[in-house]
Predict the structure of Acyl-CoA dehydrogenase.
Amino acid sequence: MDFSYPAEVEQFRDEFRAWLAANLTDELRTARRQPGRDDAQFEKVRAWNATMADAGWAAVSWPREYGGRGATVLEQLVYTEETTRARAPLPLNVIGMNNIAPAIMQYGTEEQKTTLLPRMMRADDIWCQGMSEPEAGSDLASLRTRAVRDGDQFVVNGQKIWTSLGHRAQWCQLYVRTDPDAPKHKGISCLIVDMALPGIEVRPLVTLNGEADFAEVFFHDVRVPADALLGPLNGGWQVATTTLSHERAGAARLYAEMQVRLEELVADFAAAKVGDNPVTQRRLGELALRIRYLEILCQRAISASLHGGPEVVAFGTASLAKTVWGEIGQELAALAFDVLGNDRWCDYRLTSRSLTIAGGTTQINKNITAQRVLGLPRR
């Protein structure tokens, strides 16, 4: 791995770090924690997203024609490290920016690109992603929400669940089955759906920590214009697996986030005058070592991308890194709760149970690692 930074990348870091120091407030750092908790925090983060967009810092990996900076992989790496270590709030449209926007850039019409992307970047519009269903979570290809063509419209019926910010969203990237007779991976299409259309019912879901960042969404004879199709008809699987070429260094957030959380935990131990117990120190040391290992693992995936390594290495290593990140997060949360047990860490303890599920379950990621990294056969 070669992670030496050229002078222009360090200049990029210095410029961005100075901008953050001048604009990021302690109030915003506090709001970064679960911005969906109440409307006031949500609006603070929305305003911050607009501030970053107006200054050209909201989506550095995007091409310049869509409001980005066309950042290199190393610049993306620096950007991710600096935002995480500065404790800046994540974008409200983090799924939109990282997953939906690249698909719109690749498959959308010029009108969709010029109209939807700037508003997404500023969080003027909130986006959600209609993937998971009650019987199609990790196995997306098993989805059953139907879209039937009727003239110049699709009629949509079905249900989505665990839809992040579904109750706040104006737009949804919706995956639907348009050919029930085709093999399950080949009968899926992607639609860009206005959440204000008649027949859409959204019910917020309250999770263990008392928050409602997710929703279940029901579609009852919803008529979606046919020109809302994103990508080819029955080509939704291809859209879903679009290479995220505009966010190649996103893995850096995994280790940088855990480094920040460990620093905060050590500071809380010191303030409470606990943590000098040998068992606690051993657990802290193990976490620090595993986070360092996670950093190397993430950098290996980024390096493969940077130096033109096989895509299978980058993808397989990133899947392994996500698995390790989820396990570290749960162990860190357990240690914090065991020693401190206060409200702040209690909340993270509850939230951490989702880390091995959200963004790809550990079981699925282990299958990817086994097959694409270790070369083991399917059973």
Summary: The longest strand covers residues 153-164. The beta strands are 127-130, 146-150, 153-164, 171-177, 188-194, 200-205, 214-225.
